Amino acid sequence: MAKKVVASMQKSEGKTYTKVVKMVKSPKTGAYIFKEEVVHNDKIKEFFEKKN
Q1: What number is the average pLDDT over the span 25-38?
Q2: Sorting pLDDT into bands at 50, 70 and 90, what band is 50?
Q3: Nearest of 7, 39, 3 to residue 21 by alpha carbon
């Protein structure tokens, strides 16, 4: 039963989200860190425009 619920959710909602990765320079050490987030497709551009 659970497999059917998960499968139906993936078909309807799974393709509207994307995992995005942004490289950000750490203010303390100067090293680069990666920020990962799952974002709705409509908000991808906003994710990359915002600071930290």
Answers
A1: 92
A2: confident
A3: 39
Distances (CA, A) of 1 to 4, 5, 11, 14, 38: 6, 7, 16, 19, 27
Q: Residue 48 belongs to what domain range? A: 16-52
Closest among 40, 46, 36 to 17, alpha carbons compared:
40
**Would you say residue 30 lies in a domain?**
yes
Q: What domain count does the chain have? A: 1
What stretch of H or E contains 46? helix 44-49
Alpha-carbon distance 2 to 12, whole Å?
16
